[in-house]
Design a protein that fits this description.
This protein has 15 helices and 2 strands. The chain is mainly α. The protein folds into 2 domains: 86 residues, no CATH class; 222 residues, MetI-like (MetI-like fold). It has a two-stranded antiparallel sheet. Helix 11 packs antiparallel against helix 15. The radius of gyration is 24 Å and the shape is globular. The termini are close together. The relative contact order is 0.14. The mean pLDDT is 81.
Length: 314
């Protein structure tokens, strides 16, 4: 297991190095360069040259990369001149709120998706299986922002049951103190994930139900409930663990469409506004954070996979 972890961590570091190099290179693809994007189209050639020298963009690329990585190691993700605050403080302000939205949505989707996926596999080709499959396909096919707008139209405009906007507060406690305003954003996010969990769980359970160990357990007299929830359930969770690890970047980067539709003050909305304002420091810092979360999520998924299935370690 130790050797497996060392190999995966080494691979993760290599991937992180390659992605950070490409991320910094993307900054130079702004029309006219990053300084032109910062100063605007009216900036003179003298001003662009001056700020290129101040920020070090006139240096060789490898020196820019080493300087930037040194800043990242010390926790400096840049400074937003549009917002007049550091990117680190912006992340510290918005990340907890995104974790609340994505975390609650993920838990809700798992609570419904996993048991219903097992039900569909056990009762495959039944009326309930067909109905739930149709709901899952609807979740796959419907764009997230469109489903959110439908919820606003139905439950806010028509019946006035829930507010059309998410809590617009600067603290997590205040957001949790207004649960009615969280209902629609959470449902919008959970519905798409429910389709994912239920379909993968159904497929995984169906694959395990035909394995030899299931026939052996039944031959030994194990009841159907024990076969499903003791023997099959754990092995079927392998694909869910993998998907949960891969969903970690969303927990960090935010559900952009959901946050924009409901004006939720999280990482996704901040990233969207930074893109509109061409705030490359925020875009760069958020991209690095999301990339790190992606690499870490893949690593955690591999470790979880190896814990559930020892064959993976070899």
């Amino acid at each position: 297991m130790v050797g497996f972890l060392i190999r995966r961590i080494g691979q993760a570091l290599i991937v992180l190095f390659i992605v950070t190099v490409f991320t910094l290179a993307l900054v130079h693809l702004f029309p006219g360069g990053p300084v032109r994007a910062l100063l605007g189209p009216r900036a003179t050639a003298f001003q662009i040259a001056y700020y290129n020298h101040i920020y070090g963009f006139d240096q060789p690329f490898y020196l820019q990369y080493l300087k930037w990585v040194g800043q990242l190691i010390h926790g400096n993700l840049g400074f937003s001149y549009h917002l007049n605050q550091s990117v680190t403080s912006l992340i510290a302000q918005d990340l907890p709120k995104t974790i609340v939205l994505v975390g609650i949505g993920t838990v809700v989707s798992l609570i419904f998706g996993i048991p219903l996926g097992v039900y569909q596999a056990v009762h495959r080709n039944s009326l309930g299986d067909y109905v739930l499959t149709g709901v899952s396909f609807l979740g796959y096919a419907t764009p997230t922002f469109f489903f959110g707008l439908l919820l606003v139209s139905w439950f806010s405009v028509d019946v006035h049951l829930f507010p059309p906007f998410a809590p617009n507060s600067s603290s997590v406690i205040s957001i949790l103190g207004d649960p009615r305003a969280l209902v629609l954003p959470v449902i919008s996010y959970a519905f798409v994930l429910y389709a994912l969990w239920s379909r993968y769980m159904r497929s995984s359970v169906m694959d395990n139900l035909v394995q030899d160990y299931v026939r052996t357990a039944r031959a030994k007299g194990a009841g159907e409930r024990r076969v499903i929830w003791v023997h099959v359930f754990r092995n079927s969770l392998i694909s869910i663990v993998t998907l949960l690890g891969l969903s970690l970047p969303t927990m960090v980067a935010g559900a952009i469409f959901i946050e924009v539709v409901f004006n939720y003050p999280g990482m996704g909305l901040a990233f969207y506004q930074a893109a509109l304002n061409v705030d490359y420091e925020v875009l760069l810092g958020f991209t690095v954070l999301a990339t790190t979360a992606t690499v870490l999520g893949n690593l955690l998924a591999d470790v979880g996979y190896a814990l559930l299935d020892p064959r993976v370690r070899y």
